[in-house]
Write a structure and sequence with these properties.
CATH superfamily of the largest domain: Periplasmic binding protein-like II
Order of helices and strands: HHEHEHEHEHEHHEHEEEHHHH
Strand content: 5-15%
CATH architecture of the largest domain: 3-Layer(aba) Sandwich
Number of helices: 13
Helix content: 25-40%
Radius of gyration: 21 Å
Number of strands: 9
Largest sheet: 9 strands, mixed
Low-confidence stretches: 1-44
Amino acid sequence: MPSFPSRRRLLATGAGAALGLGALGATAAPAAASTAPTASGRASGDEETRSLDELYRAALAEGGKLVIYAGGDTPTQQDGTKAAFKARFPGIDLKLIVDYSKYHDVRVDNQLATDTLVPDVVQLQTLQDFDRWKAQGRLLHYKPAGFSKLYDKFRDPQGAWVAVRVIGFSFMYATDAVGSDAPHTPLDLLDPKWKGRIASSFPHDDDAVLFLYSLYVQHYGWDWAARLAAQDVRFARGSNSPGDAVRTGQYAIGVGGGGAPLSTGPVKWVVPDSAPFMAWGQRAAILKAAKNTTAARLYLNWQLSTANQTSPNGWSVRTDITPPAGLKPVWEYRNANLDGFPRFMSDRAGVERLKQTFALYFGEVEGDPTPGVLGLHPGA
């Protein structure tokens, strides 16, 4: 992690503190993976052998309900996932609640501490929580069909969690707005011609954007951040905000948002040749105390199915799916820093110091949370 300039204060109640408070009451001893037979007759250490249709029927018999807490930026961000799941499995009452992962994780901690758990599945950016919840015995060890085909860094060896999709963060630009002067590296963003034409999500509000900015600083030095600050960048909450600003024509360039490397259209999401970008596998897990564990198993199997993992313009978490022409598997991009993000997320003190450092360069985070204010028990 880069060295930081001196400052007079350190935020005392950031994500690390929230995790500690949220975990009060979560004192279960670490749980070993069970090998006892399940209701289906298979050992829990084996991969699922039931088909999606068999799991679907079992989920309906269980009650046909499913609640998922998913990390994201807007209330409608997972509407496509919800619609596709309900079309494939009619009769399942799916509630898919989107909020910042840093709020969902402490929300789940509080629900566990107060015996008021709502979700069956957690699907979040806060990778460090899955290791912590596993150690606390909070996660159901389960290996969906295709588990052995997942890239090894995208699965817990005991099946406590799996990565269900690859997400990448970089910068992007409007092809019409930049013309032949398209930026190719983060260093190009410092060109005076882009002053007042760049939108970014606050790096000190979203840990994935924070990691991306930390990579830029490692590569170019803190002078890069100082020069970007002089570019009159429009900062906003939500990693959706840069892409939205570029798509609507408000800004030519967006920094700190997701995209698909081969997507076509008016916005080009950049995978640099050698400059850094970042990617990770978004983890999902079934909570051991969940009410609807069969429907939760159905969801994980559906997410990891070859049909869902085959994309015309992006990456898969599975090693047996060939990427579309023009792409390598994401783990072959050294500049994607795939292993670095989990390490970064586990260093909560370092994350907090870095947040406050970027606040010195770009100002404090402003604005309401883009998913809204959901309270303690959304989806209940």
